[in-house]
Amino acid sequence: MFGAKITGGGNGGTVAVLATSGAEARVRDVAARYGAETGRDTTVFTTSGPGAAETGVLLLEP
Question: For residue 48, which of 11, 28, 52, 58 is within the disulfide window of CB 3.0 to 4.6 Å?
């Protein structure tokens, strides 16, 4: 699992997490705990956005 804080996007804070699908439950747990502790809304996206179709998608397989 890899993560990075994205800055300069103007949305108040975004974290990108790259992991296997098996890590989704853990990522959702961390997001829920963050929301509970800060009172801020959290959203977890598990798929590519529509912009990926325009710029191309690179599928990495082990």
Answer: 52
